[in-house]
Amino acid sequence: MRNIIFIDLDGVITDWCTPAAELLGFDTGDPVVQAALIGSKTALDELAGAGEVDRCIDAAGISFWAKLKKLPWADELIQRVIDTKLGDVAFLSKPGKWLGAYTGKAMWQRDNYPNIPLILCRDKGMVASPASFLIDDDRKQIRQFFARHGWTHHWKDQFYLMRAGSKLIKSELELLTSVLEESFGDDQLPLL
Question: Which pTM does this prediction carry?
Answer without folding.
Answer: 0.90
